[in-house]
Amino acid sequence: MDFSYTEEQLALQETLQRFVSREYDFETRRNLSSSDLGFSADAWKQYADLGLLSLPIPEEYGGLGGNAVDIMLIMEMVGRGLLLEPYFSSVVLSGCLIRDAAPAAMKQAVLPAIAAGKLKVAFACYEAAGRYDLAHVATRAVSDGKGGWRLTGDKSVVQDGPSADRYLVSARISGSLTDRDGLALFLVDRNAPGVSLTGYTTQCGRRAADVRFENVVVGADAMIGGPGKAIHIIERGVDRGIAALCAEAIGIMTALNEATLNHLKTRKQFGVPIGKFQALQHRMADMFIATEQARSMAIIAAVHADSDDAAARQRAISGAKTYIGQAARLVSQQAVQLHGGMGLVDEMIVSHYFKRLTMINIGFGDADYHMARFSSALEA
Amino acid sequence: MDLKYSQEEEAFRAQVRAFLEAELPSDIREKSRLGKRLAKEDFIRWQRILNAKGWGAVMWPQKFGGTGWNIVQQHIFEEERVEAGAPPQIAFAFKMVSPVLMAFGNPQQQEYFLPRILSGEHWWCQGYSEPGAGSDLASLKTSAVRSGDHYIVNGQKTWNTLGQYADWIFCLVRTSTEGRPQEGISFLLIDMRTPGITVRPITLLDGEHEVNEIWFDNVSVPLTNRVGEENQGWTYAKFLLNHERAGNAGVGTCKRALKKLKQIASEQMANGKPLIQDSRFRDRIAQVELELMALEITNLRVLSSMVNEKQALGPEVSVLKIKGSEIQQQIAELQMSALGHDALPYFHDGLDIGWVVDPLLGEHYRPYAPPLSGQYFNLRKTSIYAGSNEVQKNIISRHILGL
After folding, report:
1. Residue A374 belongs to what domain range?
2. In chain B, what residues touch A256 (CB-CB under 8 Å)?
């Protein structure tokens, strides 16, 4: 066992930290969030230059060959800075899935481009009626008789969907609506005929889209993990993504605690800093404890995210998503409470941290969903 | 960052397991398995076996005759110890007074006391709390007045765990009433055979004699039995408390208790199927399991970082104390709840080895049932002792958060 980070890991995290403090302050972020694109194209280019986009990409595809612990340290900073760029969707969720499961030709075509910041991929695997069930897939893939496929169906709330160049789409080749068998993944160009989308802003100031696929033709080389066996690939990819979201949440919770503590020390009522009141001190102590425990769960999630042992991985990931969901709810609600009315103000970063944490909790399975997954696999 | 045990660590675990397998007396193992009372002799017998192996003090540095094991090795040993059913080492001796002696005692005190702890010759108890000094420990009144080369000690201590077995007691006493209350406290080591000491049992809500009151009536204590400087005892007291709290996480014990909870919930039936298949009950188990998964890592993370940076244990141990105490309580509550109506019967003899259940009752009342309700009641102590959890939050607020 080893509870330390390497110098390289810490150096990369510090690089992003410096970038955030120098070029991505809260005001900048607010303006970016309301811009047409919804994030900074310039920051995206800088992430590429800093090596962040190539972090989990294997060296043979122009990457750094990093692991999930490396990603964890970066995602903490993504959380702290409330970064709007599609790092999570494109690099962590889609990039890692392609790295692990795509055919060699697709890796060759896509991974170097992701690493260089020239290609963004969004993950389109949830459907409205399926809630959090990744096997609930009504989207159909029908053979076109020439080795390729025709996709038809709707994907909902595709995070970072509006800016994506490609979509990773789950589609059903065989079986009924919620069968775990019969699924495949396809990499689809957003400009392919038959792809349409409705984009919108999310509660946390990011962008998402509902995407429709109508008889979209893709070649045989666009398929990942098929035909029919993609559920394990999808679940593994999502588990890896959840580990990263857990780390993002830890970054936010840490920052929220700092902001709240600062408020308790400076805000005066009844003639004293409000941090002198024991009722508030103990609340703050609870937030600190919850964050440290949640940090441990994020570490557990990260070290299991790369694991091939599906049962151990799911246990760690669902456990972490549940625990961090609960802890983040406590920390973010109480941070707002302790800030008083100021916690509700749009100009205060606290309210934005609160909203992002809330949306992290809801996305990719909420605490109830993951508690059920963890609990039903309880080991004797 | 790596949460996997290395090959060396796995080999160490195998070595510990083989030792426990070979050396732990089967009668002690059986008592632990069934939650029966352990006698003083059981603890001492086991201590002698450990000491003969050279493992007499798991958490001490080698310099003082300890194992010199690192935090992960200590964690592994503790997991295996609990799993095997070996008694814990008495914390008052091994985790409280000894770190104080090592850090602040003089060579004569170290050479006299530490080997006698290792050999099992000296049983120690704690003399901190008083009837009027609980959370406000510094308000303690037990006085020590100099008379020649002795102190004359008068006063009352309370909650002295297993004081009925003790050969020695470490006491916080008031040697000055000048200045702040914290500034007039000294740390004394007192031989329990000294004339003027009276020990009275306090029976707790589980019917057990675990704690005592101890009166000091003109008890004469040599000045040489003071640790460190006169009136500096508060510093040593806080140092000791950090060591006590670091041990309060009890991760190994909790992991074993959680396993037992799952076994109980698998055997107890509800609506024609094992209770553990009731999703409402199972989710409650899952919830405490999550807390414990997190605490195991928090515990190792916090302790490793302090050891690696050669720091004394800091206020972060309060986090471990709060979480560990809550988890122990939650598991005990679920173990009791799992019994349903079988949580109600109370048999004082049920904790004695050899007790036989009445045949009619025995049709449903399982061998693991007798201690469970009592343990639930008893473990309410964990959020109260070693500084109540509210005091721990005060410590976190002041010393970590700076409020």
Report:
1. 232-379
2. none
